[in-house]
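Lab manual, section 2.4: Encoding a predicted structure.

Procedure: take the sequence of the chain (122 residues), apply the prediction step described in section 2.3, and record the output as structure tokens. A sample record is shown.
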Amino acid sequence: MAQHNEIGKKGEEIAREYLLKKGFRIRNFNWRFRKNEIDIIVEKDECLIVVEVKTQTNEYFENPKDRVDYKKQKFIIKATEAYINEFNIDKEIRFDIIAVTLLPSKIKIEHIEDAFQSSLLI
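Recorded output:
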């Protein structure tokens, strides 16, 4: 596995642990839709939350919210629609981003709730 893939998987693992500690219930992770996947799908307070995880090894990259561009958001929304249909879900939907920064001396986690809205892309 390429190093960037290993870093991404580590970030997703850290994000799952973070979400569990915050009281979220994990429904799925790495859920496949066509050639891509949704990183994490959780529930909390009668809401289905789709989480995109962005992992980096330094603090000099652009804002994680900016790294989930229009094209990625559009894919996430289409995949979420497929997930909702497959599992017959009738809940409020929210799209979050979790940024994990792996530094030599610490791990930083930034949870951006309501990072984007599906209605803005239609």
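Check your result against the sample. Strands lie at 25-33, 36-44, 47-56, 92-102, 107-116.
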